From TrEMBL:
Cofactor(s) it depends on: a divalent metal cation
UniProt keyword terms in alphabetical order: Hydrolase, Metal-binding
Family statement: Belongs to the metallo-dependent hydrolases superfamily. Phosphotriesterase family.
Protein name from the UniProt record: Phosphotriesterase-related protein
One of the record's GO molecular function terms: zinc ion binding
The organism's taxonomic lineage, starting at the top: Bacteria, Bacillati, Actinomycetota, Actinomycetes, Pseudonocardiales
Free-text comment on the cofactor: Binds 2 divalent metal cations per subunit.
Tree of life domain: Bacteria
Residues annotated to bind Zn(2+) 2: K151, H184, H213
Binding residues for Zn(2+) 1: H22, H24, K151, D270
Keyword tRNA processing included in the entry's annotation: no
Length: 342
């Protein structure tokens, strides 16, 4: 792959540029919203704030690409995101996958290959079909928008039987399409180890995986283990200080960079403009620094104070995203030659 699917069509690897690898724009829940009116869902206000912020990310902060990892189960709404991002000068990569920490909805059980409906239909798992078609044909009701990455989850329950099914569908979709896999983990349960064990046992290339939310941990041994095994790690929750304060996150990242791990790290915020789960008023009161400008405004200056070089920053924000999103060695070399030269 030398191109990446975005909301506005494929872009060449040379256009990826500085990238936030784990973000969100909107997390919706149509069933809830049809039955429980959300007092803070003011679409016009949300659109205005989001457009202003996303435009500023590119124009003022130099961010070129924004990876939105909102998938089914978390509230993916690509038609709304398409309208929101009209005129925004930023590449937006969207994801396929399924977000659940334990169980799948009934539909996926009745439509499983051995399920009530699925066994009469034949063919591959509906999850695999959905993932592949999102990437190759386009996401329904979007006029052909194609996903550029797969998102899956492990949390406190570990890889349950339903998650094993999601993982298998993701692995097969990656093998067929060549797109990367990015994950959600809970560092208190060291899920990255379980994910890597599963990936290795099932033929997934660890170098095409990002172990997400690794930045919630200050355990250097754990983080080095994940990178030494081949995966990238996502230091991707800057600003989410109700989980871990940003000073600790910056200190941990600076130590890993000092130890030579710049080539295996991506950075981001896991932030969003509206989520029905944690609405704007709650975020404003409890986590005011959790927004898409936090890395530019706070994290990078703090890293520079700790001796982190511009080459290390460019490695994390430009070169590594090219490698993750394309898997193209030549494109990665070209990106490195462009931004890492003294």
């Amino acid at each position: 792959m030398s191109t990446v699917n975005t909301l506005r069509g494929p872009i060449d690897a040379s256009q990826i540029g500085a990238t936030l690898m784990h973000e969100h724009i909107m997390a919706r829940n149509p069933e809830l919203e049809q039955n429980i009116e959300h007092p803070e869902y003011d679409e016009a206000a949300i659109f205005e704030r989001a457009r202003k912020s996303l435009t500023s990310l590119h124009v003022d902060k130099g961010i070129d690409t924004f990876v939105d990892l909102t998938v089914l189960g978390l509230g993916r709404d690509i038609p709304t995101v398409l309208r929101l991002t009209e005129g925004v000068p930023l590449n937006v990569v969207v994801a396929t996958g399924y977000y659940t920490a334990k169980d799948l909805p009934t539909y996926f059980h009745t439509h499983a290959p051995d399920g009530l409906v699925g066994k009469t239909l034949g063919g591959p798992d509906v999850l695999e079909t959905m993932f592949v078609e999102d990437i190759t044909t386009g996401i329904p009701r979007t006029d052909g928008v194609k996903a550029g990455i797969i998102k899956i989850v492990t949390d406190e329950h570990g890889i349950t039987s339903d998650l094993d099914r999601v993982y298998r569908a993701a692995a097969r979709a990656q093998a067929e399409t060549g797109v990367p896999i990015s994950t959600h983990t809970n560092v208190h349960h060291a899920n990255g180890r379980d994910q890597q064990k599963w990936f290795k046992a099932n033929g997934v290339d660890l170098e095409r995986t990002v172990i997400g939310h690794s930045g919630d941990s200050t355990d250097l041994d754990y983080l080095r283990e994940l990178m030494d095994n081949g995966s990238f790690i996502g230091m991707d929750r800057f600003g989410m200080e109700f989980v871990l304060d940003d000073e600790s996150r910056v200190d941990t990242l600076a130590k890993l960079l000092e130890q030579g791990y710049a080539e295996k790290i991506t950075i981001s915020h896991d932030a969003g403009f509206f989520s029905i789960n944690t609405p704007p008023s709650w975020r404003a009161e409890h986590t005011p620094n959790w927004h898409h400008h936090r890395i530019s405004d706070y994290v990078l200056p703090e890293l520079r104070k700790r001796g982190v070089t511009e080459q290390q920053i460019a490695q994390m924000m430009v070169v590594n995203p090219v490698q993750v999103l394309t898997g193209d060695a030549e494109a990665t070399k070209a990106a490195a030659a462009k931004v890492l030269s003294p």
